[in-house]
Amino acid sequence: MKPKVLPPTLREKDRYIVFEVISDGDFTLEDLIKATRISFLSLFGELGLSECGIRFLRNLYDEKNKRGVIRCVHNKIEEVRTALAFIRKVNEVNVIVRVLGITGTVKSARKKFLGQTNLIGYGE
Amino acid sequence: MPYCDLRVEIKDKKKAVRFAKLLGINYIGLETAEIGERVDEVELVKILVLRPRSDEELRSMIRKVRNKVEVVIVESDEYDLIRLACSDTRVDLLSLVYPRGAESFDHICARLASENNVAIEINFSFMLNSKNRVRTFRALRKVIMLCEKYKTPMIIVSGARDEWELRAPRDLASIASVLGMDVARAIEGVSDIPFNLIKRNREKLSGKRIGDALKVVEGGDLNEA
Lengths: 124, 225
Known about the structure:
Chain A is α+β, with helices and mostly antiparallel strands and about 120 residues long. Chain A has one domain (about 15-115): Alpha-Beta Plaits, CATH 3.30.70. Chain A contains three helices and five strands; from the N terminus they run E-H-E-E-H-E-E-H. In chain A, a hairpin with a 2-residue loop joins strand 4 (about 90) and strand 5 (about 95-105). Chain B has about 220 residues and is an alpha/beta fold. Chain B has ten helices and ten strands. The radius of gyration of chain B is 17 Å and the shape is globular.
């Protein structure tokens, strides 16, 4: 038997942080994830990282514009922003990670910040 | 309300302006700026960082530069100088060199700074380049706690030495909030508080304001009053 999905009232409330990376070179998403992890661990430790529940939404990462979305718990947004601000280099490339905005759903993150105004077929 | 970064130490003005525009900063404080300068939709604020070695030197430095720059910043890690700067209304911003300066800051300094409207600087670059970040964060937490208690204004700055140390003002506010500052107050620290400081000092320099209380209004009718 499979475990049941938790009802909405018992689930953790998520927020989606849309970010943009300003850089002077190229890097992969894997490098960025690694740099974020290192920054977060050095600032808040393993316990802090586990509380934040960070997850990069890989399918939404735009390599051309270097924009992406991070999912985290709703009351740990400031911590995630801080960890992103402390990233200086990704794979020896100078970077500034800038938060564009925070949304409550992936749909509004796509609409507001990723320029995907036409959401026909969304969620299919 | 516009976003401000009152202390940027980038030597290349063009680079500073380009990155400030990218990050959504409306006002940047540069030592190389001219009074009231505006480049590419970014307002430049002329700042001066004073690093005095004695009480006398601090007083004479302030006397000399007060009417020549828009924002006067005093940077020190010695208790006597920090306390003197807190009690001088001509000082706009007090920069505590981390971690020693922040450790020297006590409740008396916080109360004096609050009474004399001297803002305390929270510098991101000092945190980023600190050799002992644990000690720096600990000292900063104490400074923020004291400033919150005595309602001392706090201004969060990037203190960037190169363009890659600049950060978006809202992200700087997040760092301060993680260190114990109220989020609303942290956002004020990158917008309302520095903006009002620049506005007030520009009015003073142009002769539209005398001291902190008197404002010169042109075209008013005394009989109406």
